[in-house]
Amino acid sequence: MSNTIVKTKRPVGRRGDLPVPGQLTVGVDGFARMLGVSTVSAYRMLKRGELPVVRLAGRILIAVAEIEKLVARSSGAFVPIPKGSERP
């Protein structure tokens, strides 16, 4: 049996994978991974209405463009925690 690599026209990803170039939406797992937060935190953000979602075929999808806008808006809000101090 040979090990043959089959190329597909469309990238095939697993749940929670980062988006591939040109991908329009991600699920909640992918959204959480993009931001580096837990899935629970991602669901909380969506519940608070921080991003618009699309419900399609029983899934919650978030537009990659909206995630990029959220990060751009929030980039000035980052406050580093000084070394040696405890997190609040």
N-to-C SSE string, H for helix and E for strand = EHHEEH
Arrangement of strands in the largest sheet: 1-3-2
So how many helices? 3
Counted beta strands: 3
How far do the termini sit from each other? Answer: 57 Å
CATH architecture of the domain at 25-74: Orthogonal Bundle
User: Helix/strand-derived class?
Assistant: alpha+beta
Major sheet size, sense and barrel closure:
3 strands, antiparallel
Strand proportion: 5-15%
The low-confidence parts are none
Q: Output the radius of gyration.
A: 17 Å
Percentage of residues in helical conformation: 25-40%
CATH topology descriptor of the domain at 25-74: Arc Repressor Mutant, subunit A
CATH class of the domain at 25-74 equals Mainly Alpha
Shape: globular
pLDDT averaged over residues:
78
